[in-house]
Amino acid sequence: MIYLVTGGSGFIGSHLIERLLRNGHSVINVDNFDDFYNYQTKIKNTLESIDKISDFEFTDKETDIRHLATISQSDRYQMYYQDIRDKKGLETIFKNHKIDLIIHLAALAGVRPSIARPLEYEEVNVRGTMNLWELCKEFNINKFICASSSSVYGNNEKTPFSESDNVDHPISPYAATKKSGEILGHVYHNLYHIDMIQLRFFTVYGPRQRPDLAIHKFTKLISEGQEIPFYGDGNTARDYTYIDDIIDGITKSILYLETHSGVYEIINLGESEVVTLSEMLSTIETTLGISATKKNLPMQPGDVQKTNADITKAKALIGYKPDTDFQNGIKKFVEWFLRK
Predict the structure, then answer these.
(1) 33 Rama sector, left if φ>0, alpha if ψ -120 to 50, beta otherwise
(2) Is the model's pTM score more than 0.90?
């Protein structure tokens, strides 16, 4: 099978590509190496995902990415330095390859940054995604997996969060773009018979996690003896989901799409284990063997109080079975962090 993965040099994308290649598939990686965080991190992700860990000599962004694209090419892997907002650029990729299924992970991520840059979030997360669906229509590609987010639930008072819950009240532009993607995805499924699964990810963590996310940020600051920004009273809670479990959910979704037709499904991928901010910090402190210095700050606009996934549907439909508890997941993350 030939899979196109957007955002394939990011946190989740690089792990997915690594798994797909190990399973003998061919992969096309489309990533624009956005400046949301250091492009060198994404280059390292890419090298790890294709098992080409080497002493990469960094010079400047454009040169480095084009060099990466050259040295990473193989019979089963190709990387394109491409923005999904550029439909003509994407079209060239679709013309050059016979694509069996698309896993769309590329997005501008983050609740707080989306409040400052809502129009850019709409351009990437909505228009960019629609470009892909338009090309699916033109090139007769009818299998599509799309990354949604637990943020669509907003401050849902009912827990755990179920796919059947009303999600018409997002509280950030980022969440609104993800909800829009789900709605527009159904339009393309209905009009053009694109079999589609929308996966609502719940707070993914693990090796290669984005450096702006709390677990990575806290671990780095604590290990350096710096104070950490601690928002609220510590009682906000998240359904932290280890990266290996997310990848398992994606690959099982791929198998489901390949063996079924007439599909449009929204599926939660979480751990169903809720951990408070205070508990998360304590677990990192214990694992590092270092106490944190906190800078207490008020809750930030757009942040939700709690996320908690009902994964009943994921278990029944695709055989999803997360098996990494939070303590063990943090242990694996810290081990990776200390040797990177």
Answers:
(1) left
(2) yes
